[in-house]
Design goal:
Blueprint: H1 20-23, H2 29-38, H3 45-53, H4 56-89, H5 91-94, E1 97-99, E2 102-103, H6 104-146
Antiparallel strand pairs: 1-2
């Protein structure tokens, strides 16, 4: 028995990651011919890129990205450099015991790992809540523009 992707039924057009509409897979012969007639001269990718790059939605996605990434990267680098400077300039402080054999240097080193995981979680959460929806909408607009139906 041959598998037909249209019979899968688990993914529908309401799913934003479903590319059937964008790629033309699953369209009947009449639908493909009709789509070709509507798009006699599709725009060049460079023209679409230039238009999207200048759009308010794209600038908003970039602004939201920068507002999170630059301060987070700066804070993490300062935290890391602070650890390195403290380890080289204040060995007595770093060797001070905290609990048993665990000293300040070990606690700070473990905190570096914890900070990395926390920053990764915060970035993924920020992307999901602040950028993904706008970027997905922009993706659909871009695909429509490439088919010659947008603008």
């Amino acid at each position: 028995m041959q598998h037909n992707a249209r019979d899968a039924g688990a993914v529908g057009l309401g799913d934003p990651w479903y590319d059937t509409v964008a790629s033309g897979w699953g369209a009947g012969e009449g639908e493909r011919e009709d789509r070709g007639a509507r798009r006699a001269h599709p725009p060049a990718a460079a023209d679409v890129y230039t238009e999207v790059h200048g759009s308010a939605a794209f600038q908003e996605v970039r602004r939201r990205y920068r507002r999170f990434v630059f301060p987070a990267a700066a804070a993490f680098l300062l935290w890391y450099l602070g650890y390195v400077v403290a380890a080289t300039t204040a060995p007595g402080l770093m060797a001070r015991p905290v609990v048993g054999a665990l000293n300040v240097a070990m606690v700070a080193g473990l905190a570096q790992f914890a900070t990395t995981f926390l920053l990764t979680w915060a970035y993924a959460r920020h992307a999901r809540l602040r950028r993904d929806q706008v970027a997905l909408e922009l993706r659909w607009v871009t695909q429509e523009m490439m088919r010659g139906r947008g603008r």
